[in-house]
Amino acid sequence: MKPGAFVAYPVATICLILACSAESRPFDSIVKSFNVLSEQSPLREYIMAKPEGQVSAGVIISDVIGKTQNIAIFSGLTRDIDAVSGRLDDAASNATVLAPDNSIMRDLKRKPWEDPEDYKSFGENAYGGSSGEDRARKNLERFVQRHIVPESPWEEGKKVKTLAGNEIWWESKDGQKKIQPGDVEVTSIADKVANGEIWILGGSLHTLRPESSNMTFEPSDLAVCETCGTQYDVPLSEHPITCRVCDDPRQYVPASGQSWTSLHKEKDLQKNTFETDEHDSRIHYITTRPLTPAELPPGLSDSTTSRKQLGIGERAILLQTSSGNVLWDLIAFIDQATIDFINQRGGLKAIVISHPHFYTTHLEWAEIFNCPVFVNKDDSEWLNREDKAGCRKSVQGVTEIGEVNGEVKFIQAGGHFDGSSFLLWEKKLFIADTMMSVPSGFINAHRVPDTVSFSFMWSYPNMVPLPPTKVHGIWKALKPFEFDSTYGGFPGQYLTRPDLKAQVLESMKLFLKGAGHEKAGVYEETL
């Protein structure tokens, strides 16, 4: 921008300065900046505008959103919401930004961080003090996220969920794009860049709220096995005598005996934690742990019982592909915080589950996120609830997940269960416990001969190994695919190196050799 432009275009200048700042501002600074921008004279010209339809190659949304003067107020807010600014700055994550015009932002009946319900509950000082500031920040976050669609290109009529969890779509009326519901006009397309588009709105989506199922989650009282997390189609008061998943030789009933609970019973005893992968910010881990004594609600004592996390202790892995989010594998426990965490990142297009030990409460999750659940047909005997809503998709072999345009593949390998499967995304292989990464595989700098990186078991807790034919079957399933990283079903199980596929094959051969199998088909295999 030429020096004179800083005088000629004050709104854009402020916005560009804000966009270049690396850290989120204190909330009072956000309010002051919003008020300053709102008081500027209306500006209607674009900076660096281009003909509609032309794509800026090699440029991403964060590069250009601050250069369009008549959305400066909204664009100034996007950088203060981490989930939004991170996405707009990620070349691998596409988005459609629905940016209200400055005049719309000025004329809002209430500020973006205000909610009438807060005033009803907390009075006129609803946003005073630290707790009030927290409420205001959350409201502002929801406002901005309502205007971010985690998809681009976005086809006409296709219903998608914004980062806030609202389902919207667009349609053409008299040659004009209209966002539905609400009939909000798209006045122009400000920019098309490598990771998405910026649409300018002649209205706002301020009044839209997430769907009621996402707003008021009520945990069910269906019986859940405390040990494995499997949910059954009966209320807790009528729970089965035993859990057939734990009775199976691959699992176990603890020494204390079979015990039962429900999501409703666990809501004040458990919590989920969220961790973003340190190597890839598109990957997030969700795990369950029991509340500490300090976290327990008044009246609940931790001193009379030893508690564990609900279920086996696996992790669910949220994958943010460029075509939408996939949840790989499941944990049993779900609460509003988990729903919010996922919805803030665009909701779910699909849930994909590796094997029956992780089926847990999958119909609850599918209903909440209004998405299909992929399971393997060969493991259908282990399903324990009737799918009245038709959420399940039973598949076999290699399945491209069409809900995300085939970006991820569901690969049946067998072994642990007949339908045990992997998920492949880019060159990342998510292995659950179809095979298990082992401690000797993590530090690989001075690797000595006969050191394995993976193990292959029929039962992991009972340490029953797979026979040679099943191990060979896993290799046959993997051989057509390339990968250099594996992500296991439990925390800390991450391996990456260029020759990782070769080490899988080598581990198979060493595993069977160590078990005394002199002849095995996998011995003849090569890359």
UniProtKB/TrEMBL annotation:
The coiled-coil segments of this chain are none
Question: Where are its TM segments located?
Answer: none
Q: Which UniProt keywords apply?
A: Signal
What SUPFAM superfamilies does the record tag this protein with? FAS1 domain (SSF82153), Metallo-hydrolase/oxidoreductase (SSF56281)
User: Taking every annotated instance into account, which residue ranges of this chain make up the domain FAS1?
Assistant: 58-205
The leader peptide range reads: 1-24
Protein name per the record: FAS1 domain-containing protein
Instruction: Name its species.
Output: Cucurbitaria berberidis CBS 394.84
